Amino acid sequence: MHGPDPDDPHPVNGHPRVGFLRPLVDHPQIEIGAYTYYDDPAGPEHFVERCVSHLYPFLGDRLVIGRFCAIAAGVSFVMNGANHAMTGISTYPFNIFGHGWEEGFDFATVLAGMKGDTIVGNDVWIGEGATVMPGVTIGDGAIVAARSVVAGNVPAYGIIGGNPARLIRSRFPDPTIARLLRIAWWDWPIDKISRNLAAIRGADIDTLEKAQ
């Protein structure tokens, strides 16, 4: 038992709406780990066009998504290019329209509003229609409820929901979360993961700590 090919863009026979993203996404500012999938009735091939907005090369920010994540249809990753400078009287982006309006524009005002890369950890489930705002970090094992607007960092194994999204509860007690982060099963070789699926599915942490 070795599991599906992580480079198969359509790993579920008869369900073309489900696709592993790593072989489907080729973008210099997007990094996606193995086995992370996107589920969209229109097909997963257009993940970048449908789900990632305002990602511009001149800003250089990145979207980094870990391994074994589940991303539902309609999820939106809003990147730093969506932000407007807020240090002046107006937030209107005069400079982008040219015709003289770009003169005297200080690009540093845009950079000052940068919130950094957007990072999604491993084994994260993002529900349908959720929006992830620029510069957010979502910890390993977290769950983002459908339609949530994630504007702040999410702790590992946290369940969040709402607009703005807030922590509903943790999936496990803090000592258990610490053990899970040390185990980091998603980094194991795939044959080791396959041998220990029962413990992963069943939250058998003792077995995972002794896994071979």
Order of helices and strands: EEEHEEEEHEEEEEEEEHHHH
Uncertain parts:
none
Strand residue percentage: 15-25%
Instruction: Write out the strand line-up for the largest beta sheet, numbering strands in chain order.
Output: 1-3-6-9-12-14-15
Let me know the number of strands.
Answer: 15
InterPro entries: Hexapep (IPR001451), Hexapep_transf_CS (IPR018357), Trans_hexapeptide_repeat (IPR050179), Trimer_LpxA-like_sf (IPR011004)
Protein name: CatB-related O-acetyltransferase
Family: Belongs to the transferase hexapeptide repeat family.
Organism: Aurantimonas marianensis
Jot down its keywords.
212 residues; alpha/beta; 4-stranded parallel beta sheet; 6 helices; 17% helix; CatB-related O-acetyltransferase; antibiotic resistance; acyltransferase; Trimer_LpxA-like_sf; repeat
